[in-house]
Design brief:
Blueprint (H helix, E strand, L loop, with lengths): L2 H13 L4 E2 L24 H4 L9 E9 L15 E10 L4 H16 L6 E6 L11 H13 L5 E6 L1 H7 L5 E6 L1 H4 E2 L13 E11 L21 E15 L2 E15 H13 L11 H11 L7 H19 L8 H20 L10 H8 L5 H4 L1 H30 L6 H11 L3 H10 L6 H22 L3 E2 L4 H21 L5 E6 L4 E6 L6 H17 L1 E9 H6 L14 E9 L4 E6 L15 E10 L2 E8 L1
Parallel strand pairs: 1-2, 4-6, 5-6, 11-12
Antiparallel strand pairs: 2-3, 3-10, 4-8, 7-8, 8-9, 9-10, 12-13, 13-18, 14-15, 15-16, 17-18
Length: 626
């Protein structure tokens, strides 16, 4: 089955089982501080997993656009991609393990046609420290499902990934218990890392066995979570049933299902099952791009695996991000678009793709995906223009970098520090520096370069955790109070400063709120005092916070609904209205939630502690509830 066929089949399969199909959210998440990008199908649906009613009911299904920046350096093997589609289905307090595992197994074996003998599963072994039981229910379901297909169904305790490498798989084993690092899911990772107010639960992952020979550098023996390439995860069913509290874990009021399956990986498994090919990049989802590259370069994919894979993956990721309005730049999301394009251009040069042709390869992506994602066709010219401009800018940078390299080479040596500076300042990949050095009979200290890169990446990671943190820090009660208060703050700003004011960003923790808004000049203290009074008056009057599901078209056309970042929302949205006990509508705003249920739940007096410039035409307010 082709990628488009499997996507369509999955959506239909779940629709026939009571799910409503919802559109993909944008690649930039709303109210999620854990990442710059939507990296899973779960992220846009977190408010509903926390208990808010979904406008489409208790069963929904979609194919979500995702991007994981941390996988950029992993691209080059047979399965890693930065951009991917996550097939997802959710139950908000409706069905649970029995239905979920049965349906997913049936879809893979009966609809897609995968060989049950090549499917292996993992489950949660429990966590005694946090009083979390092992998932024996899922094990029993899996044993029945495998038995019905006439394949082995023995259970094994593995524990950690390292233990798996020492133990391996015994005959007949197909179901494996792993620890919380592998088979527990929350946005913060294993139970010990979860903040109070964060939901999570055990998960059960499905792996496809490509049957390739084990590489012992990944451990003495192979097992489902081995990284040697034999096993590939194709789906994960998360059973979100716990909430972290001050005293440990408690059951959520409703048990939820959050499933995510990688479309590209399921397609790769389907391809392998029919002709034995074990390569994501040989699926039809990459075939048009590979054909365009072979034609332009005069080289073959088989002889240039790394270059072709990097270009195909990075170009596809850049196309989707630019299509969602993320342009190449030096900061935040734009930095990664720039990085993808420049890395792809460098590999295109290595293949001999003629200058000026690179952006046209984007057509191969747009033509394949535009039926599912019409915005790609609508923004086709913008996408190609942005790629062309970034390629031209990169070539200017390369010219300066080459001049700098010549200066270094005249000294008779190229140190690891030199290579690091060329990379961070001029965008030179290490491979380019090494290639140029070899041409001059010089060597490069790779260990020194890698040491400096590791230090640089660690600093960047720590910095990114602060710089890129936006939206809600967690779902604790105090954060919800602050979040609702930002709605009152925006309403006050628009009332006092004018209707030109809109939200430009926010960052909310349990200690304070930070709110960015469009306004051309400094807001004086006297005006800030009036804003404070407006907000505190609303809190004192009290009232309810209600949710109204409606179509995005209806919300956007309603002049009483305030909203920003409309393009990030699906076709069905929630409008939150704050109505005072005196009948005053304090706020009516598009939002992804979650919030307190009533103004009386907001504890403290609203106080603006700082007002400052955020960027051109954008001001920033910091405030607390004292």
């Amino acid at each position: 089955m082709s990628g488009n066929e499997i996507r369509a089949a999955y959506l239909k399969f779940m629709e026939e089982r009571g799910h409503t199909i919802v559109p993909s959210s944008a690649l930039v998440p709303e109210n999620d501080p854990t990442t710059l990008f939507t990296g899973s199908g779960m992220q846009p649906l977190m408010p509903f997993l926390m208990g808010e009613p979904h406008p489409k009911g208790t069963r929904v299904v979609d194919s979500q656009k995702c991007f994981r920046a941390e996988d950029i350096e992993e691209v080059g093997d047979n399965r890693h991609t930065t951009f991917f589609e996550m097939l997802g289905n959710w139950s908000f307090g409706d069905y649970f393990k029995e239905e979920q595992l049965t349906w997913f197994y049936s879809f893979l074996t009966d609809t897609v046609g995968l060989d049950p003998e090549r499917l292996y599963v993992t489950v949660f072994q429990g966590d005694e420290e946090h009083d979390l039981p092992r998932d024996t229910d899922s094990v029993a379901i899996w044993q029945r499902l495998f038995d019905e297909k006439g394949v082995s169904n023995e259970v094994a305790d593995i524990g950690s990934e390292a233990a798996g490498g020492k133990r391996g798989i015994n005959d007949g084993e197909r179901i494996f218990y792993y620890d919380a690092k592998k088979n527990w899911w929350s946005r913060a990772g294993k139970p010990a890392n979860m903040p109070v107010g964060e939901p999570g639960g055990p998960d059960s992952e499905m792996f496809y066995d490509f049957g390739i020979e084990h590489n012992p550098k990944f451990g003495t023996y192979c097992h489902p979570n081995c990284d040697c390439g034999r096993f590939m995860e194709i789906g994960n069913s998360v059973f979100m049933e716990y909430l972290k509290t001050e005293n440990g874990f408690k059951k959520l009021p409703k048990q939820n299902v959050d499933f995510g399956g990688g479309l590209e990986r399921i397609v790769a498994a389907s391809l392998h099952s029919t002709n034995g090919v074990n390569d994501v990049f040989k699926t039809d989802l990459f075939a048009p791009t590979m054909a365009a590259l072979e034609q332009l370069s005069g080289k073959t994919y088989t002889d240039n695996l790394l270059a072709f894979r990097v270009i195909a993956d990075h170009l596809r990721g850049a196309v989707f991000m630019i299509g969602d309005g993320i342009l190449p730049g030096n900061t935040e999301q734009g930095y990664f678009v720039r990085r993808l394009i420049r890395r792809a251009v460098r590999y295109a040069d290595m293949l001999g793709v003629p200058e000026g042709n690179f952006a046209h390869i984007a057509d191969s992506v747009i033509n394949l995906y535009h039926a599912q994602y019409p915005n790609l066709k609508e923004t086709c010219n913008d996408i190609k223009t942005a790629i062309e401009k970034e390629e031209a800018q990169f070539r200017k940078t390369l010219t300066r970098g080459l001049a700098e390299f010549e200066k270094i080479a005249q000294g008779g040596a190229v140190t690891g520090t030199d290579a690091f500076v060329l990379f961070t300042t001029y965008g030179f990949p290490y491979e380019l520096t090494e290639e140029l050095a070899t041409e001059r009979n010089l060597s490069v200290d790779r260990k020194e370069f890698e040491a400096q890169m590791a230090e640089h990446q660690e600093k960047s990671r720590l910095g990114a955790e602060q710089k890129f943190k936006g939206g809600l820090a967690d779902n604790s009660e105090k954060v919800l109070q602050y979040h609702t208060t930002t709605h009152l703050l925006l309403a006050a700003l628009r009332e006092i400063l004018g209707n030109h004011v809109h939200q430009a960003g926010s960052n909310i923790t349990g200690e304070r709120l930070r709110f960015d808004f469009t306004h051309p000049e400094k807001v004086e203290r006297e005006t800030l005092d009036r804003i404070e009074t407006w907000v505190n008056n609303a809190i004192t009057v009290g009232g309810d916070v209600t949710i109204t599901p409606m179509s995005k078209v209806a919300a956007e056309s309603d002049p009483t609904v305030e909203g920003s970042f409309w393009d990030r929302y699906p076709d069905e949205v929630n409008v939150y209205q704050v109505t005072g006990n005196d009948g005053t509508i304090f706020s009516k705003e598009l939002c992804g939630g979650p919030h307190v249920g009533a103004l009386g739940d907001i504890r403290g007096t609203f106080k603006i502690t700082k007002e400052e410039s955020s960027s051109a035409g954008v001001r920033r307010i910091k405030a607390v509830l004292e």
